[in-house]
Amino acid sequence: MKKEFAEFIGTFTLVLFGCGAAVIAGEQIGVLGISFAFGLALIAMAYGIGAVSGCHINPAVSLGALIAGRMSVIDCIRYMIAQCAGGIAGAFVLLTIMNGQLAGYDVAASGLGQNGWGAGYLGEFDMHAALLFEVVATFLFMTVILGATNDDAHPAIAGLAIGLTLVVIHIVGIQVTGVSVNPARSLGPALFVGGQAMEQLWLFIAAPFAGAVLAALRYRFCILTGACCGTCKK
Predict the structure, then answer these.
(1) The total number of structural domains that make up the chain
(2) How far is CA 209 from CA 18, 107, 175, in A?
(3) Whose C-alpha in 26, 49, 127, 142 is 20 to 30 A from the C-alpha of 121?
(4) Would you say the pTM of this structure is higher than 0.70?
């Protein structure tokens, strides 16, 4: 269970500090600060648990790793369960902290860093823009992950490259969807906020999975790579 526990802790940390930055300090640090909170949390976990589990902390990444031939179906399922549990636990701890506000806190009104789109949500982008952003952003994110962790890549800088990619994705996409690219990150806050967050959750599951699968297929069939990775021959 070491790998699964590592994935639980990693996803817990990502949700607690990423969403926590948005909920607790969003007005003070703005989009740039929130973006770095997510990216730095991922970098920290990459070096903290990467040697144990590979630090997927994202069901879409685990699905991509499966399609790319880097993990088994059973391991993928176990990772996804641990990641979703970690995302829920992180959101629960954040909610508990926010409920400690002396002035009072209404999760339905103030939110919990949940993802969304449409009227009343951040930049008020429509569903098609949200769907397109999440698919493309996850595709690019997964492309960096597969490249940075390939056999011929430098392992010492993989976590930094992946984390900074997540920072850039958030800088561009926070106003569009709040940025998911991670179903577990979306699931936790949505469960406690309910309402529209739960109604729109399907997009933040389907779009990251789609983007990750496309990136994994590109990798598996050696499209746009300088040399064959050998996976397509297995």
Answers:
(1) 1
(2) 21, 28, 21
(3) 142
(4) yes
Query: What are phi and psi for residue 190, nearest 5 degrees?
Result: -60, -40
Calpha distance 122→99 (Å, rounded): 23
Question: What sign does the dihedral 215-219-223-226 (CA atoms) show?
Answer: positive
What does the buried/exposed string (b/e) look like for 155-194 if buried means 16 or more CB atoms within 10 Å of the residue's CB? Answer: eeebbebbbbbbbebbbebbebbbbbbbbbbbbbbbbbbe
What are the tens digits of pLDDT across the range 150-171?
988 888 899 999 999 999 999 9
Burial of 202 (0-12, 13-18, 19+ CB in 10 A): exposed
| CA proximity to 177, closest of 210, 138, 213 | 138
- In angstroms, how far is CA 145 from the centroid of its own chain? 12
Instruction: Say how far apart CA 72 and CA 65 lie, in whole Å.
Output: 9
* Segment 116-140, tens digit of pLDDT: 999 999 999 999 999 999 999 999 9
Find the domain containing 221 and state its range: 2-233
Cβ atoms of 211 and 203 closer than 8 Å: no
Query: What CATH number corresponds to the domain at position 119?
Result: 1.20.1080.10
